[in-house]
Amino acid sequence: MNIDKTVTDVFDFIASNVGKLTTSESPTLPDLSWVDVDALLPDEETLTPERFYRQLQTIPDIKFKTTNQLPFLEIRDGSFPSAIRTEFPENNTVYVKHFRLKPEKPGRPVIVVVNGLNVDAAFDFYFNWWCLRFAAWGFDSVVVTIPYSQARTPKGSFSGQFIITPETKWTLLSVRQTFQDIQLVVNRLKADGAGEVGLFGVSYGGVMAGIYACNADNADFSILCMPPVDMADLFSKWDFTEELRAREAKGETTMLTDPRVPALMSLCCMKPRIPTRKVFLAAGEFDHLVPPETIEKTNRAWGDMPWLKMYPTGHINTFAVNFRLINDLNRFLKKEIL
Fold it and tell me: Which of 191, 230, 278, 316 could form a disulfide with 221 if both were Cys (CB 3.0 to 4.6 A apart)?
């Protein structure tokens, strides 16, 4: 019996049942046809990655308030207006939680934590735990609340529900807003004298960490945990895939075939702007959402990443209770960043 595969199956079984229970109790996707997405994202802005991921020089005025004090660490909460103003007031404010080591030291490296898809406040402990661990390793960190999530969730929806929908332009707009909000945070960190700034993300957050490394001009390193590197492959098994296939059968172009999707969302179709030794990518051999062959395809495109780590795990237990990941990530940060 393969113990690693058995453990993975147990994690996947629990996650699947929790997901089904959550979905059964969650509201269906509201009608969003009244939102003028074209006004927020003109077609010409989706033609190339350079136009879609345009570089912002804005430095936001983030109002911070200290919410917790530890002997070696200060935790501050802040907020600022999003780079994109949507029809949903809740979504137009970005919330950040800054874990800053004492004493404050100019030039200290900072890790920006992207909180991920469908993550509500109940999962804050997990990202806070990582921030405390990063502090123990000598890093400041900042958790960014991504669009339509947690405190940014529109009324009548659940956290993250509006990020990825069957509508291509809507999904692209969510990705662009995530990218630009993160960019503003990094701009502020750099202006405040931070050293190297990198991203840390899990699953969808891992995709965004990779997208940022490939398209931003102010990223220094990136940590990608189980990123679905081929979003076109992922959409072929999403919960609304059958709807997309039915629309394709009627002659409509959806995220299954729209050429903008891989160009703007799939890491296997991009290349990082930072050296590959500054990229840490963790993946699972038994991950049904992120097939190993898509990771291998990305690795070939990126030029053989020295810090690509494949574990005998699935999508959940690649990061949950995976002490090998913790040790490898510690080595990566100490060798390549500190």
Answer: 278
Per-residue pLDDT tens digits for 136-170: 999 999 999 999 999 999 998 889 899 999 999 99
Cα separation, 253 vs 247, in Å, equals 8
Contacts of 14 (CB under 8 A, 6+ apart): 316
Beta bridge partners of 283: 310
**Per-residue H/E/C for 107-150:** CCCEEEEECCCCCCHHHHHHHHHHHHHHHHCCCEEEEECCCCCH
Nearest to 283 by CA among 269, 299, 266, 300: 299
CA distance 122 to 130: 15
Q: Are β-strands 110-114 and 140-144 bridged in parallel, bridged antiparallel, or unpaired?
A: parallel
pLDDT tens digits for range 61-103: 998 999 999 999 999 999 999 999 999 999 999 999 999 999 8
The pTM assigned to this predicted structure is 0.91
Residue 283 has φ and ψ, to the nearest 5°, of -145, 165
Domains and CATH numbers, the chain: 37-336 (3.40.50.1820)
